[in-house]
Amino acid sequence: MSATTLAPGTTNPTASRTSPYRLTFGHVLRSEWIKFRSLRSTWWTLGITVLVMVGFSLMFAAVVSSMESAGVSAEEAGMGAADGVGVMVVTVGYTFAQLAVAVLGALTVTGEYSTGMIRSTLSAVPRRLPALAAKMIVTGVVTAVSTVVAVGLSYLVTYPILSGKDMTVDFSSAEDQRALIGVVLYLTTVALFSVAVGVLLRSSAGAIFTLVAVFFVLSMVLSIVLGVTGAEWVQTLMNSLPASAGEQVVLGGGMSSPDAIGPWPGYAVLAAWTAALTVTAAVVLKRRDA
Amino acid sequence: MIEARGLTKRYGPKTAVDGISFTVRPGTVTGFLGPNGAGKSTTMRMIMGLDRPTAGTVTVNGRPYAQHRSPLTEVGALLDAKAVHTGRSAYNHLLAMAATHGIPTKRVDEVIDMTGLQSVAKKRVGGFSLGMGQRLGIASALLGDPKTLILDEPVNGLDPEGVLWVRNLARYLASEGRTVFLSSHLMSEVALTADHIIVIGKGRIIADAPVSDIVDGTRQRTVRVRTPHATQLAELLTGDGATVTSDEPSLLVVTGADAAGIGELAAAKGFVLHELTPVTSTLEDAYMALTADSVEYQTESAQNHVGHGAAGTSAGAQATSDSLEGAQR
User: Fold this and answer.
1) Could you read off the pLDDT of B121-175 as tens digits, one per residue?
2) Is A2 a domain residue?
3) Which end of chain B has fewer CB atoms < 10 Å from its terminal CB, N or C?
4) Is B15 found in the same domain as B84?
């Protein structure tokens, strides 16, 4: 019964013919984009990223504005030079947004391991590395675009609060330009770092725990230790860790201690960590049984 | 065409697949039969390049799977019904799989129709029953219109109509000249679907032959005889070359003689027969007979292990170990 209804439509007898379909990197990239956009968790984490960025900007703008009205200058409040306040307002949310971005990056891979999807992925792309590369490109591009959108929205919603006090972003300032480019680069690199961690750890819980520790807890604990002891080795350690070194590209001179690594060298440290983890992830993915 | 040569997979000290060689030919359905844990799934994962063989090689249509330019058109595989992200809809899963090879959306709709998933295609896979998951896995395997199909336990979780559908689909695909390799732990299922059977037990190939050969070669015909003259009759039959076993004093199970012969022999000697029943063993019995050795092998090796472990500790343990091994032989 079933045979007569299903068999005729099954396939044209093409078994002997050469198929027109080809596995190409462009196709894999498209596949990874379809996978990325067809999960709710993707949109949740992206939404949270933007919301956190904009929300913190608004909060920070309100605080700065009320202090200014009360006659406390930004400099006195320990926020660095007054001319950097505008850019700090629109980028400040990265501290929390990076957690959402890390979850997004990790889930791209660990979600496939926990559900078994990885076996479908690696069957379709048996050389494996194109799939990893495509995942990183999709995750990176989407994170970069989302960060640009979030920063843009932050600028727009805080403009009415800050414009009267002449504290908006100075697009002609090299420092402000660096911080704006820096926050996009930083969050994008964090996302790529997280994809690599996801490949290495395979478990969602393990990867997210590790990433929260690396990008949040560790830098917070170390800056407290540095504040209390002022020990040189703590600063040296912070200058070589992915989060506390990498975020200098956003913070710049303003809020950082004088011994902190410079913005671009700091970003280079994060980029080096990410590159090293990506290479390790690629080697492991290529060799490991799926 | 699938060709395995000396294919081996070890996980630590455990050997899951032990140097197997076999060929799966196009135009036929080849059943891959074995008890759970015999190495079927591991073998199939190695064919698909998901697990790396410890030794040996396996090729599909002439080359290792990963070296094909468009793998999904060479091989379609159902390895695990739940190799799908639970948060994605069936349609989007198939769309993403198809996209890797530039397979058009039209083909995605086609395989959805073919597998009867129309009503649930837009639903998230997390809520699927095992049977629907199985259908989605088969849809996935058919996407690339592949020359070779590998189906690991395809009828698991399917209702009777679904089982029949898989059976007919497998036969239809083979009739088109494709290679169809499907595994099962049920002899009856494989015997109904396959033309050729490869039996695996404890990671080794136990049999590799057409279905009819396997069934005839291992199917035993015995005759059950109930008689008050059991002892005398048994002596006579054994003298004629038959094998006789007995569980009860008046009951004989005879192998190597047919019912007519036994009846005539008994009549000639004037023995009274209370029962004379020819017994044909089922396919499952044949399968059990085939795999029984591999199960025995398992327990024996476990005992050996205990013996050798004790040997190293002391002279007393050595003696115990020797007697243990002696008792075994």
Assistant:
1) 999 999 999 899 999 999 999 999 999 999 999 998 899 999 999 999 999 999 9
2) no
3) C
4) yes
DSSP code of A214? Answer: I
**B64 and B182: one domain?**
yes
Residues B206 and B232 occupy one common structural domain: no
Which structural domain range is residue B271 located in? 221-280
Query: Which of B52, B87, B89 faces A289 most closely, judged by CB atoms?
Result: B52
pLDDT top residue among A190 and A164: A190
Q: State the Cα angle at B54 between B51 and B57, rounded to 5°.
A: 80
A17 in B contact zone (CB under 8 Å): no
Distance CA A197, CA A203 (A): 10
* pLDDT for residue B187: 82
Q: Are residues B149 and B12 in the same domain?
A: yes
The string of pLDDT tens digits covering residues A95-121 is 999 999 999 999 999 999 999 999 999
Cβ–Cβ contact B65 with A under 8 A: yes
What are the chain A neighbours of B165 within 8 Å (beta carbons)? 2-3, 6
Contact A10 B173 (CB under 8 A): yes
> Per the structure block, which two tokens stand in for A6?
């299903």
At residue A103, φ and ψ (nearest 5 deg) are: -60, -45
Number of domains into which chain A is organized: 1
Same domain, B261 and B158: no
For residue B104, give the CATH number of its domain: 3.40.50.300
| Percent of chain B clearing pLDDT 90 (strictly above) | 57
In a domain, B323, yes or no: no
Q: Does residue A43 belong to any structural domain of this protein?
A: yes
Would you call A6 and B100 a contact, using CB atoms and an 8 Å cutoff? no
Q: Does A286 touch chain B (CB under 8 A)?
A: no
Distance from CA of B262 to the nearest CA of A (A): 46
Q: For strands B148-152 and B55-60, give the pairing.
A: unpaired
Asked whether residue B208 falls in the same domain as residue B87, the answer is: yes
Closest B-chain CA to A32: B96
Residue in B52, B101, B110 closest to A23 by CB? B101
B152 and B204 within one domain: yes
DSSP state of A19: P
Residue B103 shares a structural domain with residue B183: yes
Give residue A203's domain range.
24-287
| Residue B153: HSE in the Cβ half-sphere, 13 Å Cα cutoff | 19
The nearest alpha carbon in chain B to A3 belongs to B168
How many domains, chain B? Answer: 2
Look at strands B2-11 and B14-24 and give their pairing. Answer: antiparallel
- Axis crossing angle, helix B90-99 with helix B130-142, rounded to the nearest 10: 20
Which tens digits make up the pLDDT trace of A227-237? 888 888 998 99
